[in-house]
Amino acid sequence: MNKLLLLAFVALFSAALLRAEPSRTNLVARIETCESILQEFQTRTHLRPAPEAWKNAKAILILNQFKAGLLIGVQDGYGVIMVKKADGRWSLPVLINAGEASLGFQLGAKSVESLFIITDVNTPRMLFSNRFNIGVDAKAVAGPKAAETERNQQEILATPLLAYTKSVGLYAGATVKAGHISRNDKANFELYQTKYTLPELLYSDWVQAPAEVQSLMALVQKLAP
Predict the structure, then answer these.
(1) CB neighbours of 6 closer than 8 A, spacing ≥ 6?
(2) What is the mean pLDDT of residues 28-54?
C-alpha cells in the first residue's frame, strides 16, 4: 500500500511538472523520447506495426502518457504529431499535449507509450480547433502487427487511427480510447524559435528542421516513404 501511495504521489507531481513551462532542452528531450518509443515499437516483434499499416500512413502520433490514481484518476503526458505531405515528405514533429481526467477511486500509477498511425488526411486537421478525443471524435482500433498471421485486414486498415500500445491483451480491431490530445503552440514556439503555430508547422515549409528533430524525421521517412 505504501508503495502504491508513493507511486501515485510521484505521478501526480510529474503531472504538475509537465504543465509547467519547460525549457527548450526539456522540449528536445521530449522529441528524443518519442523517437525512442517509435524505435522500440519497431524493434519488438509483438509491438511492430504491419507493413500494410505503414503503407496507409497519412500521419502519426507518438504519445508518452502516464496514469495515476489517488481518489481522482489523472492521465497526463505529451507527444508529437507528424503528417505526410503530398510529395511524400514527412513534416516537422510538432509537440502536443496528451491527457485526460476521470472520476472514481483509483490508486497506483502506470506509464503508457503509444503509437497511432493515422490513415486519413482529415483527422490531424481536428487539432486546428485545439483538441480532439481519440476514440470519440476519431475512431481508433488496435492496428495489425507484423507478427500476426496474415488475414483480411482491409476493414481495420481503413480505420482513421490504428493504435499500438504496450497494453497487454490489445488485439487487432479492438476499439481504443486514449483520452484527448491538444495543441501546445507555446512549446513549439520555444522548440522551433518561431511564432508559427501547429497548422503552419505541419503543412508548410516555412520553418527549417533544427538538428534535434532530424533523426526522428529520417526514421519516419524510412518507415513510410
Answers:
(1) none
(2) 94
